[in-house]
Amino acid sequence: MTSDVSDGNRTSLERELLADLEELWRADAETVADLRRFGKTISGVRRSNYKGERAELVKQRLDRDRLKLLEHVDPALWVNEPEVLGGFGLRSDNVFYNEDTLRFFRIACLLNDAGLLRDFRVRTPRATLWEIGGGWGGFAHYFKTLFPDVTYLITAPPTLLLLSATYVMTLFPEARFRFFQPANPAAFWRDWDSVDFAFAPDVEMDQLQPMNVAVTVDIGMLERMDAARVGAYVQRAFDLDCRYLLSVCMDDEAQNASSVRTAIEARYWLHPMATRAYLDRHLLVRSGAFLLAWKRLLV
Q: How many domains does the chain have?
């Protein structure tokens, strides 16, 4: 199975997302300085909900969840929302965060509860995390703050690469970055352990050859794709011998979310921590799905 992706066969949801981000190609300094606002197109979390009368209602809800989560999880996994590039959120107990921050915290806690973060704490061999889509770079920032000694690979359409690369390059100015060059694909993987962030267009997914892929993460991107493309991503993770896969679907009732689950279960076993009972009780997930799975030995 191949990725077989082009602008012509992207779904309407994907085309709508990319159209909303099109102005990034003409961005001036003022637009870049407010880059974080483009996150609403990806996750639906809007800055306007953190201002005025709405802010107090949002604060009550998110503070309640944050404090309850901290009763049961490792507080060292918390990372504040960056205030640069137009970062927005709530201030409470010396933290600065929004709903996206809380979602990333849940992901980190889930991976920790499943015992998957050990690979990123052990320096040899250096682990790779592959994120499908990359969003605006928010989870890349979150994870690399917690685990600096990891190679973080993002594959996405060029517009999303522009967004996420600009974001993380601003937040990690001393990091080592690499961008895929179609004219010399082999160079992308050279000295892989020395790379902090690597960016490749999704059309080159079949050429992926990263080493030691410990976890593949998708945050709301697979559910925008058709079933064939979802299956291609899961198959590629399987072929790369990626041991664990986590897909976060924003709407677990949507038809596309069902396709994501089906594709994952064809190559991976769903972890018990992906059950609704666990998510409701431990991560306070009231909507959406956190599909954590480990690789099948035989298919």
A: 1
